[in-house]
Specification:
The chain has a single domain, classed as Hydantoin permease. The protein has 19 helices and two strands. The chain has helices at residues 29-40, 43-54, 59-87, 91-99, 105-137, 154-171, 175-204, 219-235, 238-243, 245-248, 254-287, 294-299, 304-326, 328-337, 344-357, 367-380, 382-395, 420-438, 449-466, and strands spanning 148-149, 152-153. α3 runs parallel beside α8 and α3 (59-87) runs antiparallel to α11 (254-287). The longest helix is centred in the middle third of the chain and has 34 residues, at 254-287. The protein is globular. Mean pLDDT is 80; it is low at 1-5 and 471-484. It is a multi-pass membrane protein. It is found in: Membrane.
Length: 484
């Protein structure tokens, strides 16, 4: 256990929030690579890359777009991951440096909400794939759908409960269970994907017509679509930019986490995108149309063995991305809110239950609307990332006093636990992010909301913190009392 020069406040500290001790920093670059494999290799990533062709891009333009987006994304990830690896601290604790002990609960709460909502969506999608597997293996399984319980067929209810329990089993043994699961799940998905690539090359007798299809986007039109798609690709991972310290805190060294992420994120994302484009080109030959939905693609095969193996791959892929991207973060976020009562395992199980209470089966058919809402919320987290980066690199010069994170009267008290300058910067960043919605004449700016929020929020924070008096501690606090 970490020792402190000052008594730590039990409302700010427990073992899951404490700095990771050296003997527990066991994650090598291989672990980070496989974690990113597990997160990148999913249905949404597959469809996104394949759909670039549908927008009119050539294969080379699509690959170029994916490369640029992932280059920007890995830069943001690495910038926000250094503090976690250096001090062994998770995102909810690091957020206290900029926002204060109380103020940090604002970004932590919204980050947890978004993650649990995404968990609910992904888990239900995985449940459908699991139900397909069970339908191929169990006679009469599909007939159970005639009996409805809480708004869905009995077969789907069983599949949902089973899939939710799979998540609980993985989380029940803590972050180490997550690490071991991702170690084999990520590579397994890409191996199965390579099998589909082999099928595509076989039926297409080469790389298929998509690789010779000319671009329908030229000049300014291409660059306009390019900007929108790059922003969209980055925005889909904007929440991970925030909580990447939840993983890098376990890194053996900065080199391990940087190399692992550099290989695992852009490397596997580009490979996976290339694979999806090859497979899509094969569907043009085999079925006479581009099939970008992997679930539909598996449905075109009439072999029960292929359907079972394919849907099992989707189940593993969904489990992999859901555990790493949508359970680890809210688990730490909930622990941060209730450190006296929760640990990682309990918080993870609570997140799973809350995700079930969102009842995704009732609104999944309107997923397009839900995704739009979630993307808007995720884009709104851009200013938080900008503020945290500005605090670490520009204001603190990459130096934190660890004791201050866990003491109510420490250096991050500000005004009774709130940093007004961070809140003002957050407001400015959010205004920049959503100015395109507020002013119709600036509607195109909304397509770049993550970038605008990141830069405006970070720049505003750096300027406010370096100008005027230090707000760390004032006798005339506008809120009084210790953190409850």
């Amino acid at each position: 256990m970490t020792s402190f020069t000052q008594p730590y406040d039990p409302s700010l500290y427990n073992e899951d929030l404490a700095p990771v001790s050296p003997e527990k920093k066991t994650w090598s670059w291989v672990n980070f690579t496989t974690v990113w494999m597990g997160m990148v290799h999913n249905i949404v990533s597959y469809e996104t890359a394949a759909s670039l062709l549908g927008l009119g891009m050539s294969v080379s333009q699509a690959i170029f777009t994916v490369v640029v987006a992932n280059a920007i994304l890995i830069l943001a990830m690495c910038l926000n991951s250094v503090a976690g690896a250096k001090y062994g601290l998770p995102f909810p604790v690091l957020a206290r440096a900029a926002f204060g002990h109380r103020g940090a609960q604002i970004p932590v709460f919204f980050r947890a909400f978004v993650a649990i909502f995404w968990f609910s969506i992904q888990a239900y999608a995985g449940s459908e794939a699991l139900s397909t597997v069970l339908g191929a293996l169990i006679p009469g399984w599909n007939q159970l759908g005639a009996h409805h319980v809480i708004g869905m067929g009995l077969n789907m209810l069983i599949a949902v409960l089973a899939f939710w329990l799979l998540h609980a089993w993985i989380v029940s043994h803590g972050i180490e269970r997550v690490r071991h699961f991702e170690l084999w799940a990520g590579p397994l998905v890409i191996v199965l994907g390579l099998g589909l690539v082999g099928w595509a090359l076989s039926v297409a007798h080469g790389f298929g017509p998509a690789f010779s299809e000319p671009s329908r986007l030229h000049g300014a039109k291409f660059w306009s679509v390019f900007g929108l798609t790059v922003t969209g690709l980055i925005g889909s991972w904007s929440t991970l930019v925030l909580n990447i310290p939840d993983f890098t805190r376990f890194a053996r060294s900065q080199k391990d986490q940087v190399v692992g992420q550099a290989v695992g994120l852009p490397g596997t994302a580009i490979l996976f995108s290339f694979m999806s484009i090859v497979i899509t080109s094969g569907t043009l030959i085999a079925f006479g149309k581009a099939v970008i939905d992997p679930v539909q693609l598996i449905g075109h095969f009439h072999s029960p063995v292929v359907q079972v193996l394919g849907c099992l791959a989707l189940v593993v892929a969904t489990l992999s991305v859901n555990v790493a991207a949508n359970l680890v973060s809210p688990a730490y976020d909930l622990v941060n809110m209730f450190p006296k009562r929760l640990n990682f395992v309990r918080a993870g199980l609570i997140a799973i239950v809350v995700g079930f209470l969102f009842a995704p089966w009732a609104w999944y058919d309107n997923a397009g609307v839900i995704f739009s809402v979630l993307n808007a919320i995720g884009g709104g987290l851009g200013p938080v990332a900008g503020i945290m980066m500005a605090d670490f690199y520009l204001v603190r010069k990459r130096q934190y006093e660890v004791d201050a994170f866990y003491t109510a009267d420490g250096g991050f008290r500000y005004r009774a636990g709130w940093n007004p300058k961070a809140l003002v910067s957050l407001g400015a960043g959010l205004l920049a992010s959503f100015i395109g919605l507020l002013a119709p004449s600036l509607s195109e700016l909304y397509n770049y909301s993550w970038f605008l929020g990141l830069f405006v929020g970070g720049l505003c924070y750096a300027m406010l913190m370096t100008l005027g008096e230090d707000p760390v501690r004032h006798e005339d606090d506008w809120l009084v009392g210790d953190i409850e």
